[in-house]
Structures are given as C-alpha cells and as structure tokens.
Amino acid sequence: MAAIPSARAQTVHLLGQVLGQGRGMSDAMSGPAWRALPPADRAAAQRMAQDVLRTLDKCDRVLKPHLRKAPPLFVHNVLRLGAFELCTGGAAHGVVNEAVRIVGADRKTQTMKGMVNAVLRKVAEDGPEHWDKLRAPRLPRWLRDPLVAAWGARPVTAMEAAHYAGAPLDLTPRDDAQRVATATGGVLLPTGSVRLMQAGQVSALPGFDAGEWWVQDAAAALPVRLLGDVTGLRVLDMCAAPGGKTMQLAAAGADVTALDISASRMARVTENLARTGLSANIVTGNVLEHEGRYDAIVLDAPCSATGTIRRHPDLPHARQGEGISELIALQAAMIDHALGLLAPGGRMVFCTCSLIPDEGECQIEEALVRHPDLTILPAQAPGLENAWRSDEGGVRLRPDFWAERGGMDGFYMAVLHKPG
Ligand SMILES: C[S@@+](CC[C@H](N)C(=O)[O-])C[C@H]1O[C@@H](n2cnc3c(N)ncnc32)[C@H](O)[C@@H]1O
Predict the structure, then answer these.
(1) Tell me: the pLDDT tens digits for 187-228?
(2) Calpha distance 311→353 (Å, rounded)
(3) In testing the pocket of ligand 1, which one of 239, 304, 312 has its CB within 8 Å of the most ligand atoms?
(4) Is 98 in the pocket of ligand 1 (CB under 6 A)?
(5) 160 falls within a domain
(6) What's the rounded Cα separation, in Å, for the pair 150 and 156?
(7) Distance from the CA of 409 to the center of ligand 1, in angstroms?
(8) What is the pLDDT of residue 3?
(9) Active site residues
(10) What is the pTM of this model?
(11) Where does S-adenosyl-L-methionine bind (predicted)?
C-alpha cells in the first residue's frame, strides 16, 4: 500500500492547486483522494494551507532576502510553508528536515534539497523578528485596486487587517439565543447571532446534535431579519444552498420553498433541515426557469464572495477577477425574474457576500431604473447600526466593521417592495 503523504506534503499539494491551477480550496479538496484521508490529516493540511495563504505576502517577504531567483512553484510553496511555521513558533529542526524531505521525494526537485535547507536555516535565524514587523498582507492588485476606488485606501487597509485576523465562529440559534450562548460559552451579539472566539470542532459543541443552531456569519444572518415578520408567508429562498437562510425562514414560521441549481449543495440543505428539525419544500432547479407566486423572496445571489476572505483566504489567490462580469449580469437577470414571481405588495431581500459595489449598491440602483414602480423599504432589524446604511437605502457590511468584536463578513443587502 502506498504511504499516505504527510500533512505538510498535502499542504504543499493544496497550495499548488490554488496558486498554480487557480482552484479554490474546497474544490481542490473535493476529490476521492482527499475524502479517503484520515480526517485529522485533512483538517491539518487545510488549516496549514489557509494559514500560508492568509500570510502569503509575509512568507514571501521573509524569504526574499535569501532567494537569488524565484524557485519553481512546488519548491517555493515548500519554502513558504516552512517560513510560515518557523516564524510562528515551529521548531526549526523538524520544520527544516520535513521541507528537505518533501523536496527530496520528487525526482524533479531533488537537486534543490541543499538550497531549501540553507534558505530555511537562515529564515529560522532572522525570520521571526522580521515577521512581527511586517504589515498585514495586502490583497492582490486585481481586487485591491477596485476596492480602493470604491471605499478608499484607509478602509481597505482596515479590511486587510480583518482578513489577516481571521474570523470567529458565529451561530444562528434556532429559537432560544440566550440558551445557546450560555451552553456554548459564546457571546450574544446585538443582531441575534452567538459568537465564539475559540470554537474547536463544531460538531462537538453543545446543541449540535439537537439542531439548536447552525453555523452562519453574523452578517449573513441579517438579510432574513430585514424581511421582518414572515410567519405564515409563502417565501421563496432562491439560491438556498447550503441552507442558512432557509433554516432562518423556517424557524421564523414561514412556508419556505428552497430552490438551488446544485443537487449536491441541495443535499446539504436537506441534511441541515433534518438536523435542526425544520422543514421546507426542496426544489432543485434554475432560478431563471422557476415559476410560482410568493409573498416574499430571499435572493442571495451567486457572487464573487469577496466578503468572505477572512474565512476563505484562498479566494483572492485562486482567481484574478475572471467571471465577475458574468456574475453581475446573472444577478440582474435573477432580480428581474424574481420580481415576476413576487405577489403585488410583496417584499424581496436581495443580498450578496461581495465587497464590490457592482454586485451590491449598483445592482439595486440599476434595478430601480429598470422597474420604476419598485421602492426600497427602510432597513430595520435589531442591532442594525446607522453607520451601515448605504445612500440608496440598503445596508453595506464590511469585514472591518465591529473590529473590536471580531469583525463580520462583507455583505450587501436591500429590501425591495413591489407595489400592491
Ligand atoms: C451565495 S450561495 C447561497 C447561500 C445560501 N443562501 C445560504 O444562506 O446558505 C449562492 C447559491 O446560488 C446557487 N445558484 C447559482 N446559480 C443558480 C441558478 N441559476 N439557479 C439557482 N441557484 C443558483 C449556487 O448553487 C449557490 O448554492
């Protein structure tokens, strides 16, 4: 039987997939080979790859003085992982030996063992002190430039600090929020989510098996709250998987139809509903072909997901912004189709987990031009801060907001009202 590669070797493989092949981490880890790995190894490789990607700029800066030219990507990634570990408390002997072993195990890179050994020994000497003085890693230019144009340089630097700090774990309680906070040792946030700064294994937390909560960032939990009382209403959750908003709607007493194009992601909605003891009508299909009549709609449209970089540090490195203009066109088509499904007098919340205004504020401004009878309802929800309100009447959330509490995902949301 072939030996299972070490967690570090798997980490280097993952880094190659993201930085060389442009694949997202969850995609790169979806194949049968990954699923066959012991869960602890898989989790360790995922965590280390995320750590290196979150700190990539720092890893490269501590390596640079010791490299005469950029090594091949595979070797570079071995060095990046070694630099990260050495600069964050890893024992030099073990880290360097393992890096040399990984490079030596591949015939194409065997000859670089000596270089890797020498570079990492130098990093072990001067890296940790250098590391602590380096600024938080900057976003790549493809994303940084448009964000600076939209929000200004200082807010983007604050967002980068939030990305570097990472994200706490937020839970949405099914019913009794205070009980969930007490049982899990979390803090009840003003918007109704429960926040755990140090979580550990999610499925081992109190209340998981009983389905008393689900994992959902505090920002992602707000769009459904903006819809107000949905008791007894027929509500369509248009892009539903994995089901965070479907569960909120069902727990609030709505008659929910959960629609998503992806059968595999829909299976997760079914699993989540079963665990939480909630129910919804499950429909796998394309939003643009869906028919029906609904009192309210949640449109959590597919987007660049640039608001989730705290939890997905691979995202800005795997992509270069390709596909965003297609997503913007799809979001607009989805808004138009959704309005046709909404009963007169109905309300619809549009939202995206994006930091790019073209996927948020601009979508709503343009929808109001295409549909002049449409209005925006003033956003209201417990804990909603006035500073989050945007000019056109929506809500803009950013990762640098609530910095003292541990941040939040970047999100945009607005509630549209169709005349009666
Ligand atoms: C942002 S995610 C939704 C997250 C979900 N609302 C939640 O809170 O858990 C966007 C979803 O849109 C789905 N999607 C993309 N294109 C679609 C289409 N044409 N019709 C239906 N669903 C689509 C994707 O499969 C993905 O699950």
Answers:
(1) 999 999 999 998 888 999 999 999 999 999 999 999 999 999
(2) 12
(3) 239
(4) no
(5) no
(6) 9
(7) 17
(8) 57
(9) 353
(10) 0.94
(11) 239-245, 260, 300
Q: Is residue 70 part of a domain?
A: yes
How many A from CA of 240 to the centre of ligand 1?
6
C-alpha to C-alpha distance for 112 and 132, rounded to whole angstroms: 28
Give the tens place of pLDDT for each residue, 151-181.
Answer: 999 999 999 999 999 999 999 999 999 999 9
Mean model confidence pLDDT for the chain: 95
Q: How much is the pLDDT for 320? A: 87
Q: How crowded is residue 141: how many other Cβ atoms within 10 Å of its Cβ? A: 12
**CB of 406 sitting under 6 A from ligand 1:** no
Question: Which of 404, 396, 291 has its CA nearest to residue 353?
Answer: 396
Q: Provide the CATH number for the domain around residue 82.
A: 1.10.940.10
Atom of ligand 1 nearest to the CA of 262: 25
**Whole-complex ipTM:** 0.99
Is the Cβ–Cβ distance between 138 and 378 less than 8 Å? Answer: no
Q: Please count the structural domains in the chain.
A: 2
Q: Which of 99, 133, 167 is the last residue of a domain?
A: 133
* Residue 385 forms part of a structural domain: yes
The pick from 260, 270, 284 for probing ligand 1's pocket by mutation, whose C-beta has the most ligand atoms within 8 angstroms, reads: 260
What separation in Å is there between the alpha carbon of 227 and the centre of ligand 1? 19
* Atom 6, ligand 1: residue with shortest CA distance: 240
Domain stops at, among 133, 150, 173: 133
Q: Report CA(286)–ligand 1 centroid distance (Å).
A: 10
Expressed as residue numbers, the domain containing 12 is: 7-133
Residue given tokens 């009840």 in the structure block = 188
